Every structure is written in C-alpha cells, then in structure tokens.
Amino acid sequence: MRNKIVVFAITFLLLISGLLVAAQGQEVSFEENFDSDTDDELMLIKEEKKRTDFENEPEEKEEAEYCQNSVLVQLEASSNDPSRKMISETILQNRVDTLLDIVGGSTSRLYPSFNMAEITFQKDVDVMNIIDILSSREEVVHAEPNYLVEGTDIPNDTGYDSLWALPKIDAPGAWNITTGSGEVVVPVIDTGIDYNHPDLEDNMWTSEEGYHGYNALNDSYYPMDDNGHGTHVAGTIGAVGDNDLGTVGVNWNVSLMGVKILDSEGSGNIGDVISGLEFVLERKKEGENILVTSNSWWGWQYSELLYEAIEQHQKEGLLFVTAAGNEGEDNGKETSYPGNYDLTNIISVAATDQNDYLAEFSNYGKRSVHVGAPGVNITSTILDGKYANFSGTSMSVPHVSGLAALLASHNSSYDYNNLKNVILSSADTIGHLEERNLVDGRINASASLEQSPDPDDVNFWIHQPYSTTQFGEKTRIEISLNDGVNPIHGADVRVKFSTEKDTLHLVDDGSGMDQVKGDGYYSGEWRPLNRDKVELEITVELEEPDKKMTKTVTVSIKAVHPESAQRVVLRIFDFIRKLLSYLNDVGKNVGEQVRFSFKATYYGKS
Predict the structure, then answer these.
(1) DSSP assignment, residue 506?
(2) Span 359-380, pLDDT tens digits
(3) Taking all residues of the chain, what is their mean pLDDT, rounded to a whole number?
(4) Beta strands 180-190 and 292-295, pairing class
(5) Of 255, 336, 362, 394, which residue is the catalytic one?
(6) Mean pLDDT over residues 474-484, rounded?
(7) Euclidean distance between CA atoms 572 and 584, whole angstroms
(8) Catalytic residue selected from 53, 153, 170, 190
(9) Which domains are present in the chain?
(10) Would you say 393 and 152 are in contact if contact means Cβ atoms under 8 Å apart?
(11) pLDDT the model gives residue 40
(12) Which of 109, 158, 260, 277 has its CA 20 to 30 A from that of 268?
C-alpha cells in the first residue's frame, strides 16, 4: 500500500512538473541545493492568498528597487482565536522578537492595525534570503522586501494660465451647490504639507494636541513638507477660496491632514506608506470624518502587505484615489501600483491636458485606469507661500480626491462606493479618451453634484480581467452595476468563453473571489488554458428594470514566466524528497492512515 502511494505521488508530481515546463516552452535546469533541515511546513508555492491580483497582473518590471537593510513581515492574527482580526502591540512585539532571534536585526516599526512589522538591520543584508527564512515560519503570513515608491510629478515652468483646470471640470458649477466643508477630512499622503502656507493654513486639520498630521519618516506629528509636491497636491484639493489670495482648490473649505511618507527627494518605501496608512486608519476609528485619501505616488512592484493595508481602508469605508503613473504605458500590460490592485475602493487616475487629450506622459488602460482629470500645467501652492505649475498624474489625483470631498460635504450619507459610482458615472465622455480609461472620459464636478439615481440607466463596467493575463493562473473576472449612485443587486451575470464550453456565473454574495457582499461588483474565478487570445462574452440580465446587456472583451494569454515555472518545478522535487522521507517514517503498518502535517500547494491549487 505504501509503495503504491509513493509511486502515485511521484508519477503525479512528475507529470505536473512536465506540464509546467511545457507551459513555459523552454528547458529548465535543476541546480538548486536543498536543505534537509528545512521546516516541515512545506509549500510548493506560498499558500494561496485570498487576494489574487498578483497572479492576475501583467508582467512586472525586471528590476524592482527595495531597501537593502529592511524587510516587512505580517503575522497571523491570533493562533488561539482566529476570529480576532488584530494583535495587541505587546503581543506583536513579542512575536517579532522571536523572529529577530532567528534573522537578527531589530524592530523598526510595528503596525498593529495590520498585524505587520518592519525589521531593520545595521548594514545591508541578503534581503531575499531573510524573506525565505521568515516565510518558512508558521506564524508568518507574508514577508517581502521594503519596496521603494515615489511621487509622480513632472515640474514645468511657472506663469502658465492658472485657471484652466477648474473651469474644465466645471468646478464653478459645483460651487453653486457647495464649496465644501471643514468637517470633511482629507489625508494627503505625500511629502507632507506646508501647513503655514497663507493659502492653506486656514484649511489645515488640527488635532486636540495642535498637530496637523503625521510624519512617518521620523514617527512624529510634524508633517512639514520639505519638497513641495504634497503642498501642491493639497492646494488643488483645498486652497482656501474667496480670500483674495493666490489660487483656489476644488474645495474652498475642507480639513487637510498632512501625512508625510516621502522625503525631500520625493522618495519613500512601503514601510513608510503603511505607517502613514495606519495613522489615517486610527484617526478614522477615533471618529474623524475621513472618507477619501489622496495618494499621488506609485511604484512598480506588487506588495502584498500594501494590498492588505489598503484593503483594511476599504473595510473601514475609505476611498483610495491614486495615480495611474507617468510612463505613457498601458497599465493593462505593465504594472503600476497601487492603481492596479483589484480592490473596489481604488480610483486610478490618468492625466489630461487643456484640450481633453490624454497627457503624453500619462499611463492609461481601459480596465486598469478608471477616469481622467487635469494634470498638465496645474497651478497650485508650493513651499514658502509661493505658487507654481506642475504636471503629472500626481496633479490629476487631487482633482478627483478633492471632488470626492466636495461630494461628501454635500451628501453625508454617501459611502466610498457611492462616491466612486457618482464620480465615474458623471464623467464627461471624451472621444480622445475612448479606450483610455474605464469610462472613456474626464471628471465633471458639476455633473457629480447634480447626479441622482436612475434605475433605468444602468452603468455596466468591466473591471477584470486586464488586457493581458497568464496561462493557468487564477484570474478574476469582475464587473460592476450601478444606477449612477447605488449598486444594483440581483443581476444574473454569465460569462461565455470562445475557447471553452462551460459558462461562468459571477456573484455578488461575498463568496469566492467576490470581495464585498451586495456592493454591485460581481466576480468569478477563471483559469485560462489557451495560450493565445480568448474572447469573453459577458451577459447581464435584470428583472428591475427588465433589461439584458452584453459586452465582449478580448484577453491575451501569456505563457508562464520561465523563472516562475522553474521555481515551481524545483519545489515539486523538494516535495517529492520530503514526501518519501515522511512515508519512510510512517511505519510498515499498511492499514495505517497517512496524515500529512504540512500543506502542499502547487500552481495556484491546494
């Protein structure tokens, strides 16, 4: 009996390894030495996360930059009580101390809200080796490099027409309805804010202790800007209006919270970002009226821990507005984070110019970028009480986050989903922007303020998959339905594939790959087994109103990346070695039931 199990296991795993090699279409060499003393908690590929957009994302840049003397780690919430979402700071520190005994280093920062920590070392280390060691620990959910991020502005000469952007989005029409409210708090997660700027100081958020935000770089409450980028963003959101001074923001009245995560050069890392996001989350839980954050920064490398942090913001009802990026590329084919995360609380913004064309530097994507906003020659506040023109998707973001704040001041019942639906559904359709973003358009502030639910006018948007995905990878298919404000429930959503006979039903019940029950986003799982292109026909049927709609998208399927396939095959052979060793120790009792003390996962299946 035992011999049959061994033969079956070897045959099965060799077959899978052969399929993987065939899928990547090239030879794989095996030169890795395996440590016989590695932990019994073996996984052929890291245990499959509930998130999947890493597997579904387009191919990333070959070289990802990260800190050479620090790593980030996330721990299990509670081994004794899995229902607990968070670990206390004391318990978190104690568990991190156990890891420090193994890898060395010290605790730089703890993030109790996310069950995460940053471990730093006095000198540069082999970061990937440290991550491998941490990842082998049972209590570690995820470990990753501390990736770098940066702002996205492109400075331009000053003195250009400073008024074009606000009239273009019809902000004056919106101001006839509301000019904003100081009760709405907008965290500007950036290089900080010059909170002494004459055009900003009256709109700064101030705590009971008298501070205006948080500085993640030195763990202080003094987010003074030493770059100018964050101050420029803040001015677009909420430079004081009607004060006979300088410029005006989308909001004449608002509370700007400075959250400094980027240094004087406009650079930072994921650890700084997570620290800033935790500060915002804590203020939200304390009762601050925060519905939207402004994030004019980006990176190229997927971070599972950043995803987790933004997902926590989603659960607390926070809209996350971010930049599409400044490389002039299709985000459906190239990576840009956090905009490419498949979280429903994200709005990724492209930059448009005075003539409503996509800015030549702006990234774009029919399903990976949501909407356009002015981002060329934008006049706003900078350091030392001055003003300047900047260009970039960084400048587009605050037009959208500012609009979200304006909407929140007008309708206090809106949640993040309502805000997103209204902003996207009220955008002006622009011929130049067709196929460049989800709604083929650019925001319109006045139309947003005037938007009301229309059950007969259903918005049917396809969010996933992007234009490119990988052979055999778990891929999210996701659409959303809304009436301009509210989600539409009870739809029958079916997907037919040009290469398959089966029909996939998408659901909005919070199960499987669906993130939130009843939010109007319908999702399902698909594993493409065709190596060329696949046509997806998505049909929506509604009872109220009685309506049937069909849309078709084409997705290109890429072969498995050679390095990924090699890693899978190598771990399969390591699994065979451990399996044989385990079975040898089971005993000769052929009637004994074999139980594995570890979980084996391969190629996205467990």
Answers:
(1) E
(2) 999 999 999 999 999 999 999 9
(3) 83
(4) parallel
(5) 394
(6) 96
(7) 18
(8) 190
(9) 1-56+561-606 (no CATH), 150-450 (3.40.50.200), 459-558 (2.60.40.10)
(10) yes
(11) 35
(12) 158
